[in-house]
């Protein structure tokens, strides 16, 4: 009986999200003016969200170099966002593969995949429009990502999706109405925030539904896996190659960023809401604690 109620709730949520997707969506190819000029002196990310903000390396940069670094950090986050979304789509397709396609659940999963295709194209165009290369993750991390689809399922899979989505969402919400940010970037952020809200609702319900059924070793595995994935997500956001754009050796920039309390606080801030949810859901546990600490997502305890 409980399982039947759970499936009924799942279908109701999927149907509601399908209706919302039909009524409220953007087409980045049409709704963004990609030919509009960039505005002189506007930032691409808030200076205080730069990985080097507050460090000696930051103090040596001119105002123009700080804007340039922010531009490349934005491009790194955007192109790593594409990597996240490709992995997300692979995992959702695996779910759909074994699901009745006439169900609302399967149809909403496919709708979300379509959304993510548009978002990936949008992020790629953004990076190209601002004149930055495709950074993405460092090569070894890109190779490591290929095993995720084999290892991830259940609550940890949906929880990992949430970590990637909600970290970006928190930062984009902060920036999408900031007049000091480039209008192009604000519009991209606005589109992503609107459509990701549905994805977050979908994934959060799957986490709660899945965790209610887990016990013992399986619960421990899910707690371990999501922590490992979350750690990789936070450490992949900014590719060390971005620092070359302002004359800083990548290894020097990376070391400064990793040790920077301001950047660690930005990471913690970006994950504040999702960590509260995952903790309440039971996905933050002892098996994953070493990786949670390394991720900088945990608040001081």
Automatic annotation (TrEMBL):
Q: Superkingdom, according to UniProt? A: Bacteria
Annotated organism of origin: Saccharomonospora piscinae
Tell me the InterPro entries matching this sequence.
AurF/CmlI, Ferritin-like_SF, RNR-like
Quote the Pfam families the UniProt record gives: AurF (PF11583)
What are the recorded GO MF terms, alphabetically? Answer: oxidoreductase activity
Q: What is this protein called?
A: p-aminobenzoate N-oxygenase AurF
Q: Which residues form a coiled coil?
A: none
Q: Which Gene3D superfamilies match?
A: Ribonucleotide Reductase, subunit A
Q: List the SUPFAM superfamilies.
A: Ferritin-like (SSF47240)
């Amino acid at each position: 009986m409980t399982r039947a109620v759970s499936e009924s709730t799942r279908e109701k949520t999927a149907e509601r999200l399908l209706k919302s997707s039909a009524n409220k969506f953007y087409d980045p190819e049409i709704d963004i003016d990609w030919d509009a000029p960039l505005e002189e002196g506007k930032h691409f990310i808030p200076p205080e969200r730069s990985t080097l903000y507050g460090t000696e390396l930051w103090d040596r940069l001119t105002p123009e170099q700080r804007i340039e670094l922010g531009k490349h950090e934005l491009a790194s986050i955007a192109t790593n966002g594409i990597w996240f979304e490709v992995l997300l789509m692979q995992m959702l397709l695996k779910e759909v593969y074994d699901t009745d396609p006439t169900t609302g659940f399967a149809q909403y999963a496919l709708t979300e995949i379509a959304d993510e295709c548009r978002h990936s194209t949008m992020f790629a165009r953004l990076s190209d429009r601002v004149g930055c290369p495709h950074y993405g993750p460092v090569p070894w991390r890109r190779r490591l990502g290929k095993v995720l689809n084999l290892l991830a399922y259940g609550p940890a899979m949906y929880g990992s999706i949430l970590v990637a989505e909600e970290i970006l969402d928190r930062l984009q919400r902060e920036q999408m109405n900031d007049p000091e940010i480039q209008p192009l970037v604000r519009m991209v952020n606005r589109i992503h925030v609107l459509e990701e809200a549905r994805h977050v609702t979908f994934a959060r319900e799957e986490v709660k539904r899945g965790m209610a059924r887990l016990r013992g070793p399986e619960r421990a595995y899910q707690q371990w896996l999501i922590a490992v994935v979350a750690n990789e997500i936070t450490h992949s956001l900014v590719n060390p190659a971005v620092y070359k754009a302002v004359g800083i050796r990548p290894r020097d920039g990376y070391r400064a960023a990793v040790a920077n309390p301001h950047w660690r606080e930005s990471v913690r801030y970006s994950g504040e809401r999702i960590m509260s949810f995952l903790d309440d859901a039971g996905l933050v546990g002892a098996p994953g604690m070493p990786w949670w600490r390394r991720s900088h997502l945990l608040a001081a305890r």
